[in-house]
Amino acid sequence: MRRPMLVLLLLTASTAALAQFPLPRRPRIEIPIEIPGLDKILKQEPPLTTSIDDAKTEAPFLDDFDPQVLYPMAQLPVTPDAAYVMVAPGVYELDARSYCLNAGASSPGESDGALYAPVKGPWAGIIRNILRNSMFNGDIPQEDIQSLLWAILARTKISDLSPELQRVAARLLTTEEIFKINGGALGLISEELREKAFGHLPPLVRRSLEAEAELRELFTQGSPSFEELERVAVVRAVAPEQEGGREVPRGRWSYHPDGYFIRYFPHGYSRTVTQLYVPEPFDIQADENGRITSVQDQRGNRIELAYDDTVDALTVAGDGNLRAYAFGSIRFIAPDPQQPGQTRQAEWTGRGWTFVGTPSGRGRPEQEHERFADVTERYQLAAEQHRQLMALAQEIQRLHSDAMTGDALQAMLRDITDLGECAVALKAALGEDLPDEQSWALRHVNLLKRAWATGVCSLAEGGGEGGEAEQVRQEDPKPVRLAALGRLTGIGRQSVSEVSHGRLAFGGGGGWGVGPSPRKPRPLPKFDPSSGEGVGKKTKQPSGQSGKPFGDTAQAARKTRRALRVFRRGKMAADIAFNPVGAGTSMIGFAIPRKMAGYIVDWNVSTWSTATAALGGEDPPRSDYAVLARPEPIDFVPLEPGPDLPAARAQALNAMMAAACDLTSKLRAGMISMDRYGGAMEADDMGSADKQAEAVVKFKRAAGAAMIVVADRLDAVVRELRGEGFVDISVTAESLRRYQERIRTQGFSPEEIEAAHATGLTDEEIEAVRQERIAADPQEVAGSLFAAEAEVAPALRELGAIWMSLPPPAYMPVLEEAP
Question: How many angstroms separate the CA atoms of 746 and 743, rounded?
């Protein structure tokens, strides 16, 4: 009986695939009835059960929503459980590591799409913890983490793994998790038994189970290379299409249960670009007929619509709640990126029309005429989009116990439908062939797409009779069309908004809402990449998401480290720029308020980078987390022109000094905010943590702008020196050794220490500066000042541009007043 029992154990493993791939009708497999415990064995669940069938929140309506402004998620503050903090509405992008979670499937191609699906299954928590912990263990190679995941999903004992993988498991798993994995392990199965056990299974199921069995054998019988494991786990050839499979277009958005939209761009199984759209506030106006007349966001993008009432509204037989109205004029207004403070506009008259109301799908539009072209086709499209919206709303209600219900839900669904119809109408009215000066208008329609997405997100916020929409009706008994859109609440702390007849206005600064009283503040949204899988066709690999930025492929963290590394290499040479005459020997006697500023900037930038990566760097979290930091101005003694210092050089050096001190003050404020953020997280004060996270991003943006100024002024210093006839300035290793010996034996002079205190450095920081300078290799630091500057300035610009691309926090009015 041993051989049949082994066959049954194999069939037990097949439940992983059975849960994900419904089996077609096939001949019943005959199993000896005398084997005990058969029902229990066959009902075992695989470690993970997530499949494409769990992706229930896709939004086809947003397929053409392709935003151009993307905030770098990797530069945001991170919570202790590896979630990014979204400090403002908008679209964020993360280019990060991802992992294969189903051996035997094909690797996603560059044209494959993926949808959000929750991580499910008995070991979902274990897998998510590995993905989370990998973010804070960046020194563990991605290949080792993937190997551990394959071992776990193939139900291999941790004790059977190589010593290297056992050490990885010890860092990423708890003792209890390792015990659970060992308890669910399966034994080895010969190739002969494998063939008998899997012979009657569908091809996809069989391939998955065979891959898991082969992986177990590799892990148990030796120390396989990653290439050997990947050869078994990942199918490189294009897998055959499965009949009835679900098509997923690349870039399709899904609603995420945490209140935003998400989409995935897989690049193979090991790298995924993730984008989030975090809802935002809008000002929406409508006329007495409920027709949208304007939509505006907080950045000044606006759409204004007028209607041609000389054209009778088109009715739809059998659909009494629906009307079609002709546009009189369409006007788009947007800030001009080429002229700050100015706007650009485009206007069209006498073209286009839109539906207002909710299509049932059972109507029969009247005969088309020239003012309502394609009405039959547009009606069918409207009905299909409404069907998709209703399915998504139903799923949101299932996900959120306090989701909107009753009249408030119906009113909101009508309003979201009108926004969607208006977006379709404008795209049809504009066409594709616009003159070059109006080409931006095709992207401007995204304003309505964003408002639509925000409305969908707000369905999860509760409502119903007695809710805010009903409160609006009671306060203004006139029929207020689009009143439910007051629920387009987005994120953030609440401030009072106003609703009047035919008009919604969302409060700025501290969030938004409806009614005369602000609601309870809400926490900033967090994105935990491990919370979902990117799932696509059943023949493709589902991918587990990590928050760890991917390798060396254009990631912001890599650029930051490179810039700081370059800056540190040139730090001592940059100091000497303030007194280049006799640079090789004059370093010791230089006046510290002017000489040390370059080093202070470098030291703070380095510390800031560390703090960004580790919630406050090496410093302990601060307990004063209820206080917001402000940049403290740093004074310095300007250089005076003299016989050895031409006026032009003094001016250039003073300008650089001022920029360096300004950068230092912003970096220190940001560093303090990061430490206070860590203190608030440690104290579990989420309100203060959100405020400090906003402050971190605020000062990071300000420091980015200051870095670019420093780079420009450093260039100006070098230009001035070249103009004076300096071919180059060299710092000799011998002069640096003498300098090191002086500060090693005598320390900094009283004047130097006084100047360092004036710039905000503590005694501990001053000592850290001294030790680092003593430890510097003179051969590495010595060299050409001009060559160092040629690396430093571009690196600062690169880092500054990255930080400036962060979103302006929408909820920090107090910081707007900071110097």
Answer: 5
Distance from C-alpha of 216 to C-alpha of 203, rounded to nearest angstrom: 20
Q: Mind listing the pLDDT tens digit for each residue in 470-509?
A: 443 344 433 333 444 443 433 332 222 333 223 333 222 2
Distance of alpha carbon 114 from alpha carbon 122, whole angstroms: 23
The position carrying tokens 């995935």 is 264
The residue type of 3 is R
Question: Dihedral of CA 769/565/95/799: which sign?
Answer: positive
CA-CA-CA-CA torsion sign (362, 367, 371, 376): positive
> Residues 71-100: what's their mean pLDDT?
91
Q: Which residue has the tokens 């415990």?
A: 37
Q: What is the pLDDT of residue 349?
A: 95
More confident residue, 734 or 486: 734
- With contact defined as beta carbons under 8 Å apart, do 287 and 305 qualify? no
Reading the block at residue 614, the tokens are 């580790």
Given a cut of 80, is residue 575 above it in pLDDT? no
In this predicted structure, the answer to whether residue 519 has a pLDDT above a threshold of 70 is no
Q: Residue 349, SS3?
A: strand
- Read off the tokens for 601: 């900037």
**pLDDT range class, residue 755, cuts 50, 70, 90:** low
Pair 59, 89: CB distance under 8 Å: no
How far CA 506 is from CA of 40, 455, 498, 527, in Å, comes to: 57, 13, 7, 25
Which residues, in sequence order, are CB contacts of 410 under 8 Å at separation 6+? none
Retrieve residue 800's tokens: 């500054």
Task: Please report, for residues 57, 234, 260, the alpha-carbon distance to residue 103 in angstroms, rounded to integers and kept in the order given.
Answer: 25, 6, 30
Phi, psi for residue 532 in degrees, rounded to 5: -150, 160
* Cα 650 to Cα 643: distance, rounded to the nearest angstrom: 11
Length of the chain (residues): 819
Residue 19 has pLDDT above 50, yes or no: no
C-alpha separations of 566 from 122, 570, 580, 790 in Å: 48, 7, 21, 10
The answer to whether residues 543 and 122 touch, using CB atoms and an 8 Å cutoff, is no
Q: How far apart are the first and last CA of the chain?
A: 82
Cβ(21)–Cβ(204) under 8 Å? yes
> CA 561: distance to chain centroid?
20
Predicted confidence (pLDDT) per residue in 582-639, tens digit:
333 333 222 223 444 444 444 444 444 443 443 333 445 677 888 888 888 877 777 7
Residue 102, both tokens:
């189903």
Query: Which stretch, 205-209, 290-294, 553-557, has highest mean pLDDT?
Result: 290-294
Task: In whole angstroms, give the CA distance from residue 803 to residue 564.
Answer: 13
Q: In this predicted structure, what is the pLDDT of residue 34? A: 35
Q: Residue 367: which residues within 8 A CB-CB, separation 6 or more?
A: none
- Which is nearest to 759 in space by CA: 637, 650, 622? 637
**Tokens 């919570």 sit on residue:** 79
Q: What is the token pair recorded at 437?
A: 């000066």
- Calpha distance 51→36 (Å, rounded): 31
On the 0-12 / 13-18 / 19+ scale of CB atoms within 10 A, 329 is middle
> Rounded CA gap, 217 and 156, in Å?
9
Cα 397 from Cα 391, distance rounded (Å): 10
Most confident of 5-14, 520-529, 650-659: 650-659
- pLDDT tens digits for 22-68? 333 333 334 333 333 333 333 467 888 888 889 999 999 999 999 98
Q: How far apart are CA 299 and CA 279, in angstroms?
A: 14
How many angstroms separate the CA atoms of 784 and 733, rounded? 11
201 φ/ψ angles, rounded to the nearest 5 degrees: -90, 155
Two tokens at 684? 């579990």
- pLDDT at residue 551, as a whole number: 66
What's the pLDDT band for 570 if we cut at 50, 70, 90? Answer: very low
Please check whether residue 334 is in contact with residue 302, taking contact to mean a CB–CB distance below 8 angstroms: yes
Cβ atoms of residues 374 and 352 within 8 Å: no
